[in-house]
Amino acid sequence: MEIRLAVEGDEVQVVELINDLIIELGGAPLPVDEATTTAAQFIGGGHEGAVIVASNDGDLVGVCTLTYQSSIRTLGKYAIIQEMYVAPKFRSAKLGEQLISKAKSLAENAGYPMIELSTPPDGERAESFYRNLGFTQVGVRMRYKFD
């Protein structure tokens, strides 16, 4: 197993993993072509942040996307884990911990003092996982989507 930054050529597998996450959460998968283009922009440095992957013999089995933001409430910049997913058959291999560790390291080394993330409404296992990694509960994220 290898934890690394995504590189050009990883886009399709990254999108497959993120679509698996969305489906697991009860959502509809993203359009593959559009999502692959967006993933390529993130991987190619077109967005501030990083795409971190877990690779098993060349196959991606985990992904963690990290973006950088700023706000007044945080007195400046902070990082957000936007997507975090490990394929079910690899969840006992501690890959989630390794992906989060890499995200923490990248954010801290880039000068970001904190990372935030959201968990699903029924995400007791996810909340426990993140608490065990030092995260604390700070609220609920909500969304308004324009038509």
UniProtKB/TrEMBL annotation:
State the InterPro entries in the record.
Answer: Acyl_CoA_acyltransferase, Bact_Acetyltransf, GNAT_dom
Every N-acetyltransferase domain range: 46-135
Provide this UniProt record's keywords sorted from A to Z. Answer: Acyltransferase, Transferase
Q: Which Gene3D superfamilies did the record assign?
A: 3.40.630.30
Q: Does the keyword Iron-sulfur apply?
A: no
**Which GO molecular function annotation, any one, does this entry have?**
acyltransferase activity, transferring groups other than amino-acyl groups
PANTHER family, from UniProt? ACETYLTRANSFERASE, AMINOALKYLPHOSPHONATE N-ACETYLTRANSFERASE-RELATED-RELATED
Q: What's the name of the protein?
A: GNAT family N-acetyltransferase
Q: Which organism is it from?
A: Candidatus Lucifugimonas marina
Q: What is the taxonomic lineage of the source species?
A: Bacteria, Bacillati, Chloroflexota, Dehalococcoidia, SAR202 cluster
